[in-house]
Amino acid sequence: MSEAPVTSIENPPLLLVIEDSNEDFEAFQRYVERSPMTIPIYRCVDGDEALAFLYRTGRYADPQSAPRPGLILLDLNLPGTDGREVLRKIKQDETLKLVPVVVFTTSNNPKDIEACYRCGVNSYIVKPMDFNRLKHSIQILIDYWFDTTVLPTSVIEQCP
Amino acid sequence: MEKVRLSPRKSFERWQETVQGCSLPWKPYEIEIVTELRSLIVGVILKQADDLAEINLELERSNAELDSFAYIASHDLKEPLRGIHNYSNFLMEDYAELLDADGVAKLNTVVRLTQRMEDLINSLLHYSRLGRAELSRQSTNLAEVVRQAIGTLRISQPQSSIEFRLPRPLPTIFCDRTQISELFTNLLTNAIKYNDKAEKWVEIGFTQSGKGDPEDPLLYTFYVRDNGIGIPPHHLERVFQIFKRLHTQDQYGGGTGAGLTIVQKIVERHGGKIWVESTLGEGSTFYFTLAARGQS
Q1: pLDDT of residue B283
Q2: I need a labelling partner for B250 at 20 to 30 A (CA). Which of A92, B112, B210, B234 fits?
Q3: Which of B265, B264, B284, B268 has its CA nearest to residue B276?
């Protein structure tokens, strides 16, 4: 974005997107980039990579390579360790549980919705099929989490 | 010469004895036959138990298959579909000026078809969940359910004037409120949708049978009658088939063709029956039975 207007936040925190589908990620990125804020995005393609990133293990052993995200966007149906398990692990971890998690999934199964909120998910969004509604949902999501709310990034950065 | 005296034999009286609670000892050949009979019966019973166990296993397997089917339908089929939908829209956003009107129209058709495909997948998914979800039975005032369904229909179709006839108040029954509400909504929607008369009407009523005791439970037969287009006799059974439509997508507002299949499933889940009577050009009546107190 060459002509990004002045942002209300100096340095928006990192948005971690855990999404296996390239097409869904591209659609998401496309509309995040239209936001006046420049939001840094890091993408993990499955649950195992996401956990390695969050726990700084394996290829993410160097903390520089895995900064703490301010918000996690999580797909539920992932290859390998799926999103439900990733959510459970995050919300059972004393440090990671501070990071808001937004589930962004195709599943509108009442069981998934209930289980995620029971685990402590901060929002549950069913990916709209309709293109205009998808655009709208992503705009609202970015505005709400990066402009309206205060994310706990400064607290998390100090955690080990 | 000795006199021959004829008299009843005494020996019989001496031999006779009364035996109770005990049979004569079994003869070896009887024991042999009975042993054989026993092993035959045991064999039949064991075979039946085996068959039953196998049927149960089969059922569990098919339930598990349905579960994975619902998953496949919700995620695996929808994901590429959403991709086609989104990328068609990206094409229009980014390259519309390079395309002529015909190109844009064709892209619009692709988008419309992806939406239709999604509707079909959602219907299939809904139907598959309906078959498996536990019924949550509660005391439900059907008069209230139908009043709400009519209210929603009036909001969604404000332009058409429809007369709803309720000859007498509907009863309160023990059923899954959400499902029965969907049942009435689907039937009423169809009654209005497939109706070309200037003065449309729908009548919702019931008859009852049974005394209401455990041997003779109270059973209601409800009906939803309309003065719509009717159904030709040779299509009467087909209307309940999933995705079976009697008209093209351009007629009568389109739709996926799952509405009546869902209605049928709901009635069957509640232990009832559904059937339809119709006169082409004059209207249709859908009948269905529901027990006042369904088995839970």
Answers
A1: 93
A2: B234
A3: B284
Contacts of A106 in chain B (CB under 8 A): 74-75, 78-79, 82
Which pLDDT band, with edges at 50, 70 and 90, does B14 fall under?
low
Q: How far is residue B90's CA from residue B176's CA, in Å, rounded to a whole number?
A: 43
Task: Return the SS3 of B7.
Answer: coil
Are residues B90 and A77, on separate chains, in Cβ contact within 8 Å? no
Residue B9 confidence (pLDDT) above 80: no
Rounded to 5 degrees, what are φ and ψ at A73?
Answer: -105, 120
Per-residue tokens: A112: 């998934």
CB A104 within 8 A of CB A131: no
Contacts of residue B55, Cβ cutoff 8 Å, sequence gap at least 6: none
Backbone dihedral angles phi then psi of residue A108, each to the nearest 5 degrees: -110, 20
ipTM value for the complex:
0.74
Would an 8 Å CB–CB cutoff place A106 in contact with chain B?
A: yes
- The backbone torsions φ and ψ at residue B219, rounded to the nearest 5 degrees and listed phi first, read -125, 130
CB contact under 8 A, B81 and A129: yes
The residues, ordered by sequence, that sit 6+ positions from A125 with a Cβ below 8 Å of its Cβ are A102, A103, A104, A105, A137, A141
The first and second tokens of residue B147, run together, are 């009043």
Q: For A100-130, what is each residue's pLDDT tens digit?
A: 999 999 888 888 999 999 999 999 999 988 8
Check A129 against B83: CB less than 8 A apart. no
Give the C-alpha separation, B80 to B265, whole Å. Answer: 29
Whether the full predicted model's pTM is greater than 0.90, yes or no, is no
Tell me which H or E stretch contains B164: strand B162-165
Beta bridge partners of B139: B174
Residue B31: which residues within 8 A CB-CB, separation 6 or more?
A: none
